[in-house]
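FIELD: query
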Amino acid sequence: QVQLVESGGGLVQAGGSLRLSCAASGSIFSINGMGWYRQAPGKQRELVAAITRDGNTDYADSVKGRFTISRVNAKNTVTLQMNSLKPEDTAVYYCNAYLFNYSDYANYWGQGTQVTVSS
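FIELD: result
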């Protein structure tokens, strides 16, 4: 089995910062890409940021310049540094990994961590 364990969520005031971390473990041969998604109540889950094995990144327009995604491949870990947080960033943030589990390539999700930004 594969597990993605997230940490770093919490409550912060507007303008503050949080750093989310996600570590993948289990039957993992290699990870092609990892990313962060978020979902607010009543809304669809949306991509926040993603990073490939070679370090290419993709960000939602709403977070460009404020969020930074990074990855330590050897540790199967991805982080999301969130600066200048806004109330509209409030959501449950989910870690995602696309990886080879010795049998197939598959997409995995973390349990989600709540980020709440107050004004």
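FIELD: remark
The chain has no helices and eleven strands.
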